[in-house]
Specification:
alpha/beta, binds alpha-D-glucopyranose, binds calcium ion
Length: 595
């Protein structure tokens, strides 16, 4: 059932990304050619059997000993990434930035922050990635800029500055209060009064991250122009930061009810904005790109619209349902893990995007705790649960995303005090709770331990030398103390290597059409221990079955696997015909001639 060699290179349909682009060598040695003239053996774009790896540059590898990861570090690890088999590298932002939000506050969209390197080094990284058949996806952060961006400096300078309307400025309400009641994602109000003119500006994130006004066509053109500039440099696509928030709920901003409870994102203009972007940037520019929109709060119905190829908006979205169901009133209030609920959410996203649209598959990233700590058992069954979730995720339909360190089963950290944390979200939350609401410091810290973003941002653990081989200097954030045992060197030498298991999963996605495209069906949805599903090829003749025991207990119930099925892959040594699944055991079976 393996696909013909050329499928993934030539599959990009003209209606998604048309135009000419120089040939790019790809991982299996063939070349990617112009989508409009190339033969198109299937209607499936190349990224339908690609795997993306996310690099968080600050924490990946430091080449000059200043304690901060950089481009030199990424370049030194390209062979490692090529060995893993990934197709696309998504780089979290490396643009010039005051770094209030680790680069998600950009002060210049057309340069590289000196802490990471410069444009020449970036070009070298791009060329070296392309030589290895890997594409590069940039992080596009255009819901907001840094308050140090030249656009905002101008905008704030006077009420009649030509760039005044590039951001959201409003006078105080007649009673002297803020324009509306929206709160920032990083605690406190979403409006800050600026001394220069006495008006308020909107920031859905930090005070230092003012929101751009996408209603203004000059803003949109400036962003599109910048995107074309990066495409000219040779980048292969964009991961678009909180892109559904660019379309504000205008009634709420200026409405009489002050916007409370109405939410602020995914205004109806969003589809028009994304279609215009597609037209002005991707359709107008030669190439075969991939786009993924980060979209907190969107439903499956929204996502099916955003990713319908005929609508020319986005290739896929990051949805948030499966990373938002396991907490109480706020994200730092964790609830016990509920497997049935997780299966329902992931299963629904699979089936509701089956006919139209495409899923992004992820269980962690730089904003989430480590997947093995959140969904698995990061002590007794660390390796088993890390590989179980890898198998469960990578066998679904969609494009899998591997977050740096997940491929060796890196875990959460429990730093002793808030002073050890760097993330603005966690630090602001702690201060607000402890200083304003008198919460118990230990309780707030426990929430940060469980859900804080720094869990994913501690330095990549390369080996057991000082600072985990991440840097020769003091890292900007402490290394996870488990680095002597959890690191790439140890893992890759182990018989039960997590890295080796990821390699197998990634290779399967490249070669197995049922893995890439098969229909999904959730099995035993109510079972509290078993995550099971089937994938069936488009013609119905091939069927894969995943069975995974997501618990610390053995599972002896009959498995939904027909007699005669063959074991393709398992995360624990094979046990012949024994149907018992050991704790955190996951298996993949194949049933030939399924129907
Ligand atoms: C996205 C990013 C996150 C950042 C926020 C504001 O959610 O992934 O890291 O803090 O947007 O840019
Ligand atoms: Ca450095």
């Amino acid at each position: 059932m393996s696909r013909r060699n050329g499928d993934r290179e030539h599959g990009s349909p003209a209606l998604i990304h048309s135009g000419q682009r120089p040939e790019l060598p790809t991982r299996n040695g063939t070349t990617m050619t112009d989508a409009t003239t190339a033969p198109r053996p299937t209607p499936h774009p190349w990224w339908t059997n690609a795997v993306v790896y996310q690099v968080y540059p600050r924490s990946f590898a430091d080449s000059n000993g200043d304690g901060i990861g950089d481009i030199g570090g990424i370049r030194s690890k390209l062979d490692y990434l090529a060995e893993l088999g990934i197709d696309v590298l998504w780089l979290s932002p490396m643009y010039p930035s005051p770094q209030h939000d680790n680069g998600y506050d950009i002060s210049d969209y057309r340069d590289i922050d000196p802490v990471f390197g410069d444009l020449d080094e970036f070009d070298a990284l791009l060329a070296e990635a392309h030589e290895r058949g890997m594409r590069i996806m940039m992080d596009l952060v255009v819901n907001h800029t840094s308050d140090e961006h030249a656009w905002f400096r101008e905008s704030r300078s006077s009420v009649d500055n030509p760039k005044r309307d590039w951001y959201w400025w409003r006078p105080a309400r007649p009673d002297g209060d803020r324009p509306n009641d929206w709160t920032s994602a990083f605690s406190g109000p979403a409006w800050t009064r600026d001394e220069t003119t006495g008006e308020y500006y909107l920031h859905l994130f930090a005070t230092e991250q003012p929101d751009l006004n996408w209603e203004n066509p000059e803003v949109r053109e400036a962003v599109y122009d910048m995107m074309r500039w990066w495409l000219d440099r040779g980048v292969d696509g964009f991961r678009m930061d909180v892109i559904n928030l660019i379309a504000k709920n205008l009634d709420a901003i200026d409405g009489a009810d002050r916007g409370s409870g109405l939410g602020f994102g995914t205004g109806p203009q969003i589809h028009g904005f994304l279609q215009e972007m597609h037209r002005e940037v991707f359709a107008a520019h030669p190439g075969s790109y991939v786009t993924v929109g980060e979209m907190p709060g969107v439903s499956t119905a929204d996502a099916a619209l955003f990713t319908d190829p005929l609508r020319r908006e986005l290739d896929m979205v990051f949805q948030f349902e499966h990373v938002s169901f396991d907490h109480g009133s706020h994200k730092f209030d964790p609830l016990p893990f509920d497997l049935v609920a997780l299966k329902e959410i992931l299963g629904r996203w699979q089936t509701e995007l089956a006919e139209t649209g495409w899923n992004s598959l992820y269980l962690g990233n730089h904003d989430q705790p480590r997947l093995v700590s959140r969904f698995g058992n990061d002590t007794v069954y660390r390796v088993e649960s890390a590989t179980l979730w890898a198998l469960v995720l990578h066998l679904m339909r969609g494009t899998p995303y591997v977050y740096q360190g997940d491929e060796i089963g890196m875990t959460n950290v429990t730093f002793a005090t808030i002073d050890d944390y760097r993330d603005i979200e966690s630090v602001n939350h702690y201060r607000e709770q402890v200083e304003q609401f008198d919460a118990s410091p230990a309780a707030v810290l426990a929430g940060v331990h469980a859900r804080g973003r720094d869990n994913a941002r501690t330095p990549m653990q390369w080996d057991s030398s000082a600072h985990a081989g991440f840097s020769t200097g003091d890292p900007w954030i402490a290394v996870n103390p488990n680095y002597p045992t959890v690191n790439t060197e140890e893992d890759r030498a182990a018989a039960d290597s997590v890295f080796a298991f990821y390699r197998q999963l990634i290779a399967l996605r490249h070669t197995d059409a049922t893995v890439a495209l098969g229909r999904f069906e959730l099995l035993e949805p109510q079972h509290p221990q078993l995550f099971a599903y089937a994938r069936t090829s488009e013609d119905g003749t091939d069927r894969l079955i995943v069975v995974a025991n997501a618990s610390d207990e053995p599972l002896t119930d009959p498995l939904p696997v027909p007699a005669g099925a063959t074991l393709v892959l398992g995360n624990q040594p094979a046990t012949g015909d024994d149907p018992t699944l050991r704790p955190w055991e996951a298996r993949l079976y194949r049933v030939g001639s399924a129907l």
